[in-house]
Amino acid sequence: MKKHILLFSFLFIGTISFTQDTTSTLSKKEERRLERRNRVNAVIKQEEEGVLAYTRQNSFGVQIRTDGYGFFYEHGRTQTPRFTNLYLIEITEIKHRKEEKATQTDGFFSSSYIYGKINNFYQAKLGFGQQYILGQKGNKNGIAVMGIYQGGLSMGLLRPYYLNVNDGTSSARDIKYESVDSVAFLTGRINGSSSFGKGWNELKIRPGAFVKGALRFDFGRYNEMISAVQIGFSVEGYAQKIPLMVYNEPERLFYQAHLAFLFGRRK
Q1: pLDDT grade, residue 52 (50/70/90)?
Q2: What is the pLDDT of residue 24?
Q3: Does the N-terminal or the C-terminal CB of the chain have fewer CB atoms within 10 Å?
Q4: 75: number of Cβ within 10 Å
Q5: What pTM, to 2 d.p., does this model score?
Q6: In what helix (H) or strand (E) does residue 4 lie, and over which residues does it extend?
Q7: From CA 27, how far away is CA 29, in angstroms rounded?
Q8: CA–CA separation, 251 vs 92, rounded Å?
């Protein structure tokens, strides 16, 4: 009889313990499920209120600059609800402010060129910066305003500018501005600029750095989409002076304003 009582007691205690463990497990699962639901509801509420809530963003941009044009890719990682670290890759071209296109017409054909241009000047940049949200959207149809600052390294690439000319002593030939051909480059019969593939094997590297500040206006309807316009100002400096045009002093510092259009996604 005592054995039966002991066995029954052990079974009873085990059942109670199993029930408690099961209840505890179910309770933890329910808590996690509730937490996830609350997070989703919070994000939905933030989107309805126009709050930009995300952890990462990727965007591509096209920019028009006062001295050229450019393209860039940006990767962002949120640090706080208002601050985001930005990692930048940018490709640009700087043109001299005195560049003007001329056209040489020969029968039915015409070719344009830039008189007195010495080099094309491209830049490949790697940068880091931060984005600060100055003002949230207020609602889905609102506009978020952000302040941007960035800086980093710039690798300048000089490519000689070639012209196709007839100098009266030979058939048409492609020449660049240098001591031997300087007279023909400026006074020869210019047929037009040479092909785009000319001069790439003569690239010269000019290291430098840049800083940029901007205001960004994001008018994307949904939180996960980036549709923005950016206006800003930047400065670039190079270790050596950059010759761009004949009879114009080469420069180390370049100042430019820009207008950019951005598209991308947030997560």
Answers
A1: low
A2: 58
A3: N
A4: 14
A5: 0.76
A6: helix 2-48
A7: 5
A8: 17
- For 67-121, write each residue's pLDDT tens digit: 999 999 999 999 888 899 999 999 999 999 998 888 875 655 567 888 889 999 9
Distance between CA atoms of residues 154 and 125, nearest Å: 4
Q: What are the structure tokens assigned to 146, written together?
A: 């952000």
Q: C-alpha distances in angstroms, 264 versus 60, 88, 167?
A: 6, 14, 52
On whether the CB atoms of residues 245 and 116 are closer than 8 A, the answer is: yes
- Give 136's Cβ-side CA count (13 Å radius): 16
Bridge partners (DSSP) of residue 113 are: 102
Q: Which residues contact 200 (CB under 8 A, 6 or more apart)?
A: 159
Question: What is the distance between the alpha carbons of residues 219 and 139, in angstroms, rounded to a whole number?
Answer: 10
**179-238 confidence digits (pLDDT tens):** 777 888 888 788 888 888 899 999 999 999 999 999 999 987 777 888 999 999 999 999
Contact assessment for residue 122 and residue 93, using Cβ atoms and an 8 Å cutoff: yes
Task: Judge contact between 65 and 92, C-beta under 8 A.
Answer: yes
Query: Can you spell out the DSSP letters for 13-70?
Result: HHHHHHHHHHHHHHHHHHHHHHHHHHHHHHHHHHHHTT----SEEEEEEEEEETTEEE
Tens-place pLDDT, residues 2-42: 555 555 555 555 555 555 555 556 577 777 777 766 655 55
Would you state the structure tokens that stand for residue 193, as one six-digit string? 């600029």
178's tokens: 């240098």
- Other Cβ atoms less than 10 A from the Cβ of 92: the count is 25
As given in the structure block, the two tokens for residue 240 are: 């050596």
Q: Residue 227 and residue 144: Cα distance in Å, rounded? A: 11
